[in-house]
Please model this.
Amino acid sequence: MGARKHHAPRRGSLGVRPRKRASSIVPRVKSWPSIEPDKPVLLGFLGYKAGMTHAFIIDQREGSPTHGMEIFTPVTVVETPPMIPLAVRAYAYDPNIGLKTLGEAWTTPPDSLELARKIKTLGAFDFDKKIKELENKIQNRSNVIIKVIAASQPKLAGGLEKKKPDLIELKVGGKEVSSILEYAKDIIGREVRVSEVFQLGSFVDVIAVTKGKGFQGMIKRFGVKELPRWHKHRKGSRKSGSRSHGRGTWSETPQAGQLGFHRRTEYNKRILMIGENGYEVTPSGGFLNYGTVKTDFVVLQGTIPGPAKRPIVLRYPVRPPAWISKLDDIKPVITYFSLSSKQGN
Model:
């Protein structure tokens, strides 16, 4: 008889603890890539998940067993209506507290956004005066970070009923603070399209809130094995054993709780298509639970978190593998893009 096994694989990753509901349906970007593009550019963009379909593409990754061959891949369509930056905000790094806000300058929101009631507590929208004060504070400072607060336009999207814009803070990437600030001032109050931020064939990180599944038990939440029902389990077969060790509780013990509606990040998704006419990628009858894509769109290779209509944040990659740089300048080759109906029977 062999030795008795005294160990077992861990159930559930500790890297996603705590498993609680996201604080907002619009995910906050916690970290930004430390890149310095030649020209200042926004490092993120907000869109809305429309749905999925499939395509056939040419595998362009060197070293892949299917390199140069036609392969099948699932794709996700994200509708990205133009965004309108409304404010410039500057941060400085403080070794004691981290990032410290230096100031911000807001412009008057367009009437089409219907945001006057939401941000009227910020005071007068004297952008010229506030931006000069901000420039004076930035002078002779190092490690200054410039961000903009931008508003989406969901009412332009084809599959959304809501009209209230979503606000998100986006970092501006560049080499010099002066050029970054000039770029931020230039885009304030005007529409910015996704094609100005990302390029065809580049890779992005996708940040979103997953589909919510409510309060679930440990069997479904962690996938542990149910105890055999033919024994006398007085306290139930779908429960865990001891959760304490005399001095406290094992935090790793699977327990019931919230499942889904978590903020998650998917890394290194390639952009296969970028366009301004959403009808080009809308299947027959529209996407299930979404409808027709009418405005700008992005087609990503693979799957992304969340159900249809969920706000999706696209960000420049923070941990790109070495092989990604070889594909950034190569345009994807799509041999077939499915537009068949997704409505089912």
Remarks:
- The longest helix spans residues 127-138.
- The chain has a mean pLDDT of 90.
- The helical segments are 127-138, 177-187, 218-222.
